[in-house]
Design goal:
The protein is an alpha/beta fold. The protein is built from five helices and seven strands; from the N terminus they run H-E-H-E-H-E-H-E-H-E-E-E. It has helices at residues 26-37, 56-63, 76-89, 100-106, 124-136, and strands spanning 46-50, 68-73, 93-97, 111-116, 140-151, 162-168, 171-176. Its EC number is 2.1.1.171.
């Protein structure tokens, strides 16, 4: 994987093969960050990266100037890799080793962008729990976005506060916002 833009543009990050991850493709990541760039100033964001895996999305935010990034993943190897990489690059990334649903049920952490990249084989019920917990527990700041990455075979348009989806190859991003 590589960082697409910002301070660490073109830097390659090689994750250990044994991590249980499926990193977001460069094409999909670039498209996602074009959308975010048109709406937010990166240096003003608070980001929560759920199912963080390798930290791919968080590194991109950090490279673009975001200074408040928290990654949540239940795999110790993923957390260890993110901590090591963030330290090497001097990136402002905090990690929390936790089951994402347990974290969402207990936290009062609020963010402008909450990015969730759960396993593509999640059940519809598991996918629906993400926006349900985010909005029930008031974790998204006003004018913020919850972005859920999923397969093009999964439809999240019926979930609470769904706004729109974008498709990039086999990847899809569904966007959720606080509805007024």
């Amino acid at each position: 994987m590589r960082i697409i833009s910002g301070l660490y543009k073109s830097r390659k990050i090689v994750a250990p093969k044994k991590l249980p991850v499926r990193p977001t493709t460069d094409m999909a990541k670039e498209s996602l960050f074009n959308i975010i760039n048109n709406t937010f100033y990166f240096n003003e964001l608070i980001v929560l990266d759920l199912f963080a895996g390798t930290g791919n999305i968080s590194y991109e935010f950090a490279s673009r100037g975001t200074e408040q990034i928290t990654c949540v993943d239940q795999d110790f190897g993923c957390i260890k890799f993110i901590n090591k990489t963030a330290s090497e690059f001097k990136m402002p990334i905090q990690t929390i080793k936790s089951d994402v649903f347990t974290f969402l049920e207990k936290t009062n952490f609020q963010a402008n962008i909450i990015f969730a990249d759960p396993p593509y084989n999640f059940t519809d019920d598991a996918f629906s729990k993400i926006p349900e917990l985010v909005f029930k527990n008031n974790l998204l700041l006003e004018d913020g976005l919850l972005i859920v990455e999923h397969s093009k075979h999964t439809d999240l348009s019926n979930l609470i506060n769904y706004s729109y989806s974008k498709s990039y190859g086999g990847n899809m991003f569904s966007f959720f916002e606080i509805q007024n």
